[in-house]
Amino acid sequence: MVEHRLIERWVTLLEPQGQQMEAEFLIASVDFLQTYADRIHHGKEEDILFHFLSEKALSTEHRRTMEDLIEEHVRMRRFVASLAHAGPRGEGWAGLQVLPQLYRAHIAKEDKQFFLPAMTYLTPEEQAQVLDQFREFDRRMIHEKCKAAVGAWEARAPQWAKHSRS
């Protein structure tokens, strides 16, 4: 839930930008939302917490809420990907004002309806395991991001080599 506060701070920055978003802020926003909000934060929820909870006898309401949260992650992931593909001057930025609302509603659902009740399904030992796995996930994440960046630029390097020879 602590991570939610940082995500809320970022989406608050999006609101006054709207159609007037500068390219630099757009690139930073897509990177923050894809890396921190989705890959790191939602990744921990889906890969660790929800995995633990999926093996529990959740109430019908809590299981449905967890499934809804996963669907919301997918929707937000697709929305941010469409922004990334649109580019700084692309079409579809009118929908940007929707993004802060989506994140706020999603965070409220997790904070107020799901996370605290969900903890009652986990033993204290399991809760400690979840936190340990969260820490390990965070530790590995920067390496994953940097390796992906190097790989992406390496894939483009042969193109540069061809152009420099001609």
Describe the structure in your own words.
The chain is an all-alpha fold and 166 residues long. Helix content is 82%, strand content 0%. It is built from five helices and no strands. The chain has helices at 2-14, 23-54, 60-86, 98-119, 124-165. Helix 1 runs antiparallel to helix 2 (23-54), helix 1 runs antiparallel to helix 4 (98-119) and helix 2 (23-54) runs antiparallel to helix 5 (124-165). The longest helix is centred in the C-terminal third of the chain and has 42 residues, at 124-165. 9% of the residues are buried.
The sequence of SSEs as H and E is HHHHH
How many β-strand runs?
0
Q: Supply Rg.
A: 19 Å
What overall form do the CA principal axes indicate? globular
Strand content: under 5%
Which spans of ≥5 residues are poorly predicted at pLDDT below 50?
none
Task: Determine the N-to-C terminus distance.
Answer: 54 Å
Secondary structural class: mainly alpha
Summarize the SSE layout with pairings.
Elements: H1 2-14, H2 23-54, H3 60-86, H4 98-119, H5 124-165
Helix pairs in contact: 1-2, 1-4, 2-3, 2-5, 3-4
What key attributes describe this structure?
single chain, 166 residues, mainly alpha, 5 helices, 82% helix, 0% strand
